[in-house]
Design brief:
The chain has 150 residues and is mainly alpha-helical. 70% of the residues lie in helices and 4% in strands. It has 7 helices and 2 strands. β1 and β2 form a beta hairpin. The N and C termini lie far apart (56 Å). The structure holds manganese (II) ion.
Length: 150
């Protein structure tokens, strides 16, 4: 299932799904605080998500995910988690939260699926992952020593 939502609307839906896991009463202010956006921006996004049938929502009423919204929200949260796991697995020294956030909207589903396969492969084969870590560690030692004249 590939849905065409803007990165911004994807983030709204992702956050609504996260909130839905801990409360039945999601408020506009919760979303506004989490995403650090204004209340009118949240209302506007909610109307768009409602038009596309991801949520049920009336102004000043409850925000509820439809089945479609729930399924896609779950996928978005999982996609973010997989990318964070991937970045940590390859020992990237980047800010993992920021970079996963940057990657998630621009990679194709095919690439996300492939990355998920790699993450699972290393999880299922810890000995191979250990080999990878050893290789990476020796490589960074080489890089650190690269400046020395022999
Ligand atoms: Mn995002």
């Amino acid at each position: 299932m590939i849905e065409m939502l803007t990165p911004s609307l994807e983030d709204y839906l992702e956050e609504i799904y996260r909130l839905s896991l801990s409360t039945e009463n999601i408020r506009v202010t919760d979303i506004s605080n989490k995403l650090n956006v204004s209340l009118p921006s949240v209302s506007k996004a909610l109307m768009r998500l409602k038009d596309k049938e991801y949520i049920k929502y009336e102004p000043y009423g409850n925000i509820r995910l439809t089945l479609k919204g729930n399924n896609f929200g779950k996928y978005l949260v999982e996609r973010n988690r997989v990318l964070q796991e991937f970045l940590s697995l390859i020992c990237s020294k980047c800010d993992i939260t920021v970079e996963a956030e940057a990657m998630e909207h621009y990679l194709s589903k095919a690439t996300i699926d492939a990355i998920q396969g790699l993450v699972k492969f290393f999880k299922d084969n810890p000995n191979l992952y250990q080999q990878y870590r050893t290789y990476i560690d020796s490589r960074s030692t080489e890089i650190e020593n690269g400046g020395f004249i022999e």
